Amino acid sequence: MNILVLTKQTFDTEEKVSIQNGRISEEGVEFVINPYDEYAIEEAVRVKEKNGGEVTVLTVGPSRSENALRTALAMGADKAVRIEPGVGEYDEFSVAKWLAAAIRNRPFDLILGGNMAVDSGSGQVAVRVAEELDIAHVTSITKLVLVDRKAAVERDVEGDLEMIEVSLPVLVTAQQGLNEPRYPSLPGIMKAKKMPLEIISIADLGLSEEESQSRTMVVDQYLPVKKQAGRILQGDLNQQVYELAQLLRTEAKVV
Fold it and tell me: Which residues contact 19 (CB under 8 A, 6 or more apart)?
């Protein structure tokens, strides 16, 4: 079975975000595999261990994202591919185009990705890739069972559970609860350091500029306003409502 995993390197969720010159500063920042993508990698390795086959991990990102690929290899992936995005702007549309182009000439039965990226909050790329490849996709899965050429999937539906059966090839995105990602072993880490990575340029993908051009633009980036201390209103309910309305009008100026 040929299994592909879409990954992204993101800020460590413990990192403090700072803005410099209108951009998020990456100075001194620790990067990790997007946590939801770790579930996808773990599930891919488990499927391989049970059914045999090969796991290939793909990402779009600068050279630093190779650390994430090395971690995936140490977890049990067999091959890793990095698409070099260059210096231009790119968004979920272009990333999905590039990944789909890189996948199109590869054999695959199953594609896994994270439910969303924790840095952008986007859950777009994986499903866009499925649409580009014209294959079925199921998002937010919490259980995956493969029998013959079918996948029995359970997915989280805002606290409820939906059960779906779908034929391969299929793309699924991993939700928290799907599994418990393993820690890479020391032998796995040492082995992963020596494994070759496939690096693809945008030009190698054979897409026109129009096909892979971003469809969105970041206009501004800023940190949220620091929360102010709360205020407890006194008096009976009518007095509190009256005072609240006055404060919203005179201080907050929102009514």
Answer: 25, 221, 222, 223
How many Cα atoms occupy the beta-carbon half-sphere of 148 within 13 Å?
A: 4
Pairing of strands 54-60, 31-33: unpaired
Q: What DSSP state is assigned to residue 63?
A: G
| CA dihedral sign, ordered 191, 41, 15, 94 | positive
234 torsion bin: left (phi>0), alpha (psi -120 to 50), beta (else): beta
**Strand extents, DSSP E, the chain:** 2-7, 9-11, 19-20, 23-24, 31-33, 54-60, 79-84, 110-114, 136-147, 150-157, 160-167, 170-174, 198-201
Q: Which parts of the chain register pLDDT below 70?
A: none
Predicted TM-score (pTM) of the model is 0.86
Tens digit of each residue's pLDDT (9 = 90 or more) over 113-130: 999 998 888 889 999 999
210: left (phi over 0), alpha (psi -120 to 50) or beta: alpha
Contact residues for 35 (Cβ-Cβ < 8 A; gap 6+): 10, 13, 114, 118
139: nearest Cα among 121, 153, 120, 118: 153
